[in-house]
Hints:
The protein has 11 helices and 3 strands; from the N terminus they run βαααβαααβααααα. With about 325 residues, the chain is mainly alpha-helical. A 3-stranded mixed beta sheet has the order 2-1-3. It starts with 12 loop residues before the first strand and ends with a helix.
Amino acid sequence: MCGENSSSLAPGFFVLNGIPGLEAAHTWIALPFCFMYITAVLGNGGLIYLISHEEVLHRPMYYFLALLSFTDVTLCTTTVPNMLCIFWFNLKEIHFNACLAQMFFVHMLTGMESGVLMLMALDRYVAICHPLRYSTILTNPVITKAGLATFLRSVLLILPFTFLTKRLPYCRSNFIPHTYCDHMSVAKVSYGNFKVNAIYGLLAALLIGGFDMFCISVSYTMILRAVVSLSSADARHKAFSTCTSHICAIVITYVPALFTIFTHRFGGQSIPHHVHILIANLYLMLPPTLNPIVYGVKTKQIQEGVIKLFFKEKDVLVMK
């Protein structure tokens, strides 16, 4: 708590304390996070490379998957290296402006991830419900505009977080009980009224996540109706199997996200703080780590692309 004669509205730095109550285990906690980060970078980087080099994957579904992979790997890169420095080297200080920048990118990229999942749901809707018009509806210009609109939406809705947080009065040095600069975690260490931050944060979550989940729900309702109406059991299985990897990605992304958003505002006292921080970190790490695995296991074209690419590289090495 600051004194009344505190002379600084903005501190020079924040101190990220990691996971409160589990400081003694920081070194060991960092190991699975480091493994997940390496897996995320290799998996998503491999997917992007595969999609860009295999002509059979030059389709709207895989373009959106490449965009999701890029968003995922960028998202975890904004937090995990800094988190590992906290856990392993006790480097907890982060400059005030760097903290605001990290906060912006974390929330902007999570909004972008949600938007891409929504676009992928619409892609599946068009592919299953309007298969004959698929290539004429989802053209490259349409895909580019959809991706750009999703990016601009996230930027415009998340940018106010920075200004709302910067206007709050702080002490010269502030301790944040977190591993990265989350919007509400930063706002709560101020000695000013952060109610506007809480209200706008919830509004932004509804405008991004709520809207995207509504579109996803409508898309899959229409898909389910179309699949059920198919006469052949084999056709129903084939149609719905194209959606299973996307459904897994939705569950992996939205379940921890909703937990994090609502416990910050409604369940903070009933849930141990270290549990909340661990879930918040998993919220950023699980989708980038598991999405490439899920799509690699569930998508036949990606499996074939990996095998083809592997043997192509092997043949090149043999020729050399």
